[in-house]
Amino acid sequence: MGACRHYASGWGDPTLVAMNDSEYAGYVKNKIPVMAFASQGGGYYSKKLMGFPLKDKILRRYESSKNQARLPIVKRIAEENSCTPAAVCMAFLTSNPLQSAAIVGCSTVTQLEDSMSLCDLTLTDSQLEALQNPAV
User: How many domains does the chain have?
Assistant: First the structure.
């Protein structure tokens, strides 16, 4: 869900590129599945909402006006569903009309359990729309 920047701004890997709105629409229309390499944005939403510091690498990749606008939306959805921001990120992918596989990069068992805590959570169309197109 995190709108990341092009690889040159922090990824350093030319095989990893951010998807733009036109590409997204094409993948949905043509039913082409995608891999969400950084499906939780390196913990951007979770850490930001809990007031934890973020590594410079994560800030370079994910700090944007669009992602900042998503923060209160992620918080609201997490509160409505009694879940964590990480679970909302996963639900965004699994509830989305775009066929995708989420790759999670957990460094602890606790993070993995958090990511999988509500794997059956389905977001509403209005929640998906709010996350996809936050008012910036």
Answer: 1
